Amino acid sequence: MFSEITQTPAFGILISIIAYSIGIWIKNKTKSVLANPILIAVIIIIAFLKLANIPYAHYKIGGDGIHYFLGPLTVALGLMLYRQRKIIKSHFISLLIGITCGVLTSFFSILLMGKWLGLDEIMLRSMVPKSITTPMALSLVEINGGNPVITIVMVIITGILGALVAPLFPKWFPFLDKIAVGVGIGTASHGVGTSKAIEMGETEGALSSTAIGLAGLLTILLVPPLFVLFYR
Questions:
Q1: Which listed site, 20, 56, 83, 129, has its alpha carbon 20 to 30 Å from 43?
Q2: Helix (H) or strand (E) holding 87
């Protein structure tokens, strides 16, 4: 009976909502930057599945339902882009240069780290899309090669780290304005980091949303020829 329940879409969705709600509660209670609701939810879900001996495939049935809404959610961010359209238009060239630098920095940092750690080419190809959204990252893996499972894990880890570090940006770099902070968060940590940028302010959220799309597009355009250049 219990096994049948765990194989329904409602099970995965309900567990995700409960785990995330607990994460929000812990965050509000502790007020700690480290108390990231997404990270807490991931830990709770993994622990529950292990303790209850529930296959991940059962949870994934409902989890895929939540994943479906990533697309519409990204589109919904367009409202903030519209509200901040004047800022985006007036700083577009600067945004493009900054995001391009961020994409190239991400690529070469993975390349250098991989060389230092002795990682093979497949691993590097899997890790490079870490800073763009999951759908874009998987599309790049199909084009450029790599292991999609490793890519998804890297995307999740990068997003969570971005959400943890994002609130510290204004403290570490007080000379940065809201536009620079938003662009940095979106370029480095896609949608998960952007969720934190939205909490920080509408300008940060809008610019972070802009960076998601541009960083994803530039990554898909630049990474394949760069790999050809370095691994031909």
A1: 129
A2: helix 85-90
One-letter amino acid of 52? A
Q: Is 193 exposed, middle or buried (0-12, 13-18, 19+ CB in 10 A)?
A: buried
Range 155-175 burial, b when 16+ CB lie within 10 A, else e: bbebbbbbbbbbeebbeeeee
What are the start-end ranges of the E strands in 49-107? none
Q: What is the Cα–Cα distance from 198 to 33, expressed in whole angstroms? A: 15
Q: What is the pLDDT at residue 100?
A: 92
Amino acid at 26: I
43 Cβ neighbours under 8 A, 6+ residues apart: none
Give the pLDDT confidence score for residue 58 in this predicted structure: 82
Q: How far apart are CA 145 and CA 136, in angstroms?
A: 13
Q: What per-residue confidence (pLDDT) applies to 71?
A: 66
DSSP single-letter state for residue 132: S
Give residue 7's pLDDT: 73
Q: Chain-wide mean pLDDT for the chain?
A: 82
Tokens of 78: 């367009």
pLDDT tens per residue across span 99-140 = 999 999 999 998 888 888 888 888 888 999 888 887 788 888
In sign, the C-alpha dihedral spanning 195, 200, 206, 208 is: negative
- Give Cβ neighbours of residue 86 (< 8 Å, ≥ 6 apart): none
| pTM beyond 0.90 | no
Element at 211 (helix H, strand E): helix 202-231
